[in-house]
C-alpha cells in the first residue's frame, strides 16, 4: 500500500500529538519525611503504575518550601501540614486540598532536654521549629495552653536537618518537630506534649495532599489515581496493623523514605489517624474548611498572615476521592 506524503505527514503529526499527550501528565510531586503507610506504595512505584504518569519525587523538609515550589509551578502535587496550607490558601494561591494525609498525633511533638521538667521551665530557653509549619502552630498553641508568653522563650526558625545538627551540638533546649529530627531529639530528651494531646485540647493539626488547580483541571484522572493509591495503602494498614507491621519489607520502605528509625515506626504510625475514603468525603468539606479558617485566624493573631478569608471552600475538594 502506498502512503501519500500528506497522509504520512498527518500520521507523523498524529503520532507526535499522541506522544505529547502521553507525556503531558508527567508531574513532580513534593513529599516530606513523615511516617505513613503510603510510603510503601511510593517505594513500590504504585503511583506511577496507577496514574500511568512519570513522577519526579522530590523530598522537602517543610511545608513552607513545598508551597513555594507549588506556587512557582515547579511542583504539581505536594504534601504539607495544615498551617502552611492555611497560609497558602489565605494568600489565594491556585491550589486544592484533595486528600487528608493524616490527622497528626504522636508523629509531631515538643521535646525538651532533660532538666526541663515542666512547661514553665521553657521560659528563657531556645526552642527550634520550622516557621509556618504544623509544629510551629502546635508550639504556639501549647504555649498559649500553658499561659506562657511566646516572647519569654527564644523561638528559632530552623529546618529539620538544621534542628538535628543544633540538637546534637547542644545549641537548642527544645524542639517541636517530626521525624527524623523528632527521633534524634527523643534519644536524649523527653516529650512534653504531642500534637495528638493538643488536638484533644482544641488545637488539631493535619497533613494534606494538595494539587495545583490548573494541573487538576487538565489531568483529573491522575489526581484521582493518586488519591486511590494512597487510600488503598491506608486501608491495607488499617485492616490489620499488626500484620502490616510484621512485614519487615514495609518497615524498611517507610524507614528509607522517612529517615525514621525502624524501631520508632510502629509507635509513630499508631499515633496518627489515616482517614479512609468514607472519612475523606466527610472531612473534605466543612471540617477542613473550618479547620483552615481557625488555623488562619491563629496565624493572623501571630502576625503570620494579614487577613482571614471569609470562605476556604474553594481550596478544598472531595471530587477526587473514589466512590
What can you tell me about this protein's structure?
A five-stranded mixed β-sheet has the order 2-1-3-10-4, sandwiched between helices. A five-stranded mixed β-sheet has the order 7-6-8-5-9, with helices on both faces. The longest helix is centred in the first third of the chain and has 20 residues, at 5-24. The chain has 16 helices and ten strands. The chain is globular. It has helices at residues 5-24, 38-44, 46-51, 63-72, 82-90, 134-145, 160-169, 181-188, 195-200, 213-218, 220-239, 241-246, 248-258, 265-270, 277-283, 286-301; strands at 27-31, 55-59, 77-81, 95-103, 108-113, 126-129, 154-157, 174-178, 189-194, 206-212. It is α/β, with parallel strands linked by helices. Mean pLDDT is 91; it is low at 1-24. 50% of the residues lie in helices and 17% in strands. The chain folds into two domains: 27-103 and 205-315, Periplasmic binding protein-like II (D-Maltodextrin-Binding Protein, domain 2), CATH 3.40.190.10; 108-200, D-Maltodextrin-Binding Protein, domain 2, CATH 3.40.190.10. Residues 26-241 form the Solute-binding protein family 3/N-terminal domain. Belongs to the bacterial solute-binding protein SsuA/TauA family. Keywords: Signal.
